[in-house]
Amino acid sequence: MVLEIRQADQSDRDAVARLLDVAFRDDPVSGWVFPDPEHRAAVHGKFLGVFVDVALEEGRIDCAVDGSAAALWLRVPAGDPDAEAAEDEVPARMRAAADPDNERCELVGRLTGAVHPTAEEHEYLLMIAVAPGRQGEGLGTELMRPVLERCDREGLPAYLEASTERSKVLYERLGWEVTGEPVRLPDGPLMWPMWRKPQG
User: Are 192 and 182 in contact (CB under 8 A)?
Assistant: First the structure.
């Protein structure tokens, strides 16, 4: 498969946020943050839209030209207090944007942020989404391939948090390994921090 990829810009912001919304609406973490399905339908896109804004401001978004998939990446410098401080602001932004009375909006980001490695510069796969009708076709793998190949050429690690067992297995096939203990959301699902060393 040859997937045609382009880099998103501000004009793609709402389309990418809609794609994240539909792709993750039934994700276990989204269900934990917003247990009521009707409420989730109303605010979930606003919640994930903050990730889109952060990636447009500070990273990059690679999209399939046909709109079927998008990957949000941030380059995280080694031990940069400013970057850590900026990451600390994101959970509060998500809560304020989507559901100010819902502390889970903020808690999920605080818990994952607490285990995010900072010793080495790395590419952080913030989110990757494939349209529900296109999942299982290998689009996500193809979308990640150029960045992972660049990581391998530059000797750069990559990091992500997997939110399902299924996605964890997919990432393991691409060279990621679970690092440390899973993040346990209170009375909720697990998230697996995963680290990918450059492949030789």
Answer: yes
Residue matched to tokens 């447009």? 56
Residue 188: Cβ within 10 Å count: 17
What does the pLDDT profile of the chain (200 residues) look like in tens digits?
A: 678 999 999 999 999 999 999 999 999 999 999 999 999 999 999 999 999 999 999 999 999 999 999 999 999 998 865 555 555 688 888 888 888 999 999 999 999 999 999 899 999 999 999 999 999 999 999 999 999 999 999 999 999 999 999 999 999 999 999 998 999 999 999 999 999 999 97
